[in-house]
Design brief:
- This protein is 33% helix and 23% strand.
- It has one domain.
- With 87 residues, it is α+β, with helices and mostly antiparallel strands.
- A hairpin with an 8-residue loop joins strand 1 and strand 2.
Length: 87
């Protein structure tokens, strides 16, 4: 799974979690619990405070049903993957 866009947002401090919206076309189609668990495993290897939120590309660009995506679109900071780091 290679995310196309990652967005983080909020006002972090040393005790806060890190909400990370993982945008991938993989999530535009039906996906499994294993797909989401893979995100959590990858996040845990980096920082246990990361809380990944799966979103499809189309969903992220067009959907207004999930408030967390709306906040990420307007307030989030785009995070780029390093070359070769896609899972």
């Amino acid at each position: 799974m290679t995310p196309e866009i990652l967005r983080r947002y909020g006002n972090p401090n040393e005790w806060s979690d890190i909400d990370l919206v993982v945008v991938s076309d993989r999530f535009d189609q039906p996906y499994t619990r294993n797909d989401v668990q893979q995100l959590w495993r990858m996040a845990a290897r980096v920082d246990s405070r990361i809380e990944p939120i799966a979103a499809g590309v189309k969903e992220f660009e067009e959907d207004d049903a999930r408030a967390i995506l709306e906040v990420a679109r307007w307030e989030g900071e785009k995070v780029y993957l390093e070359e070769g780091s896609g899972g």
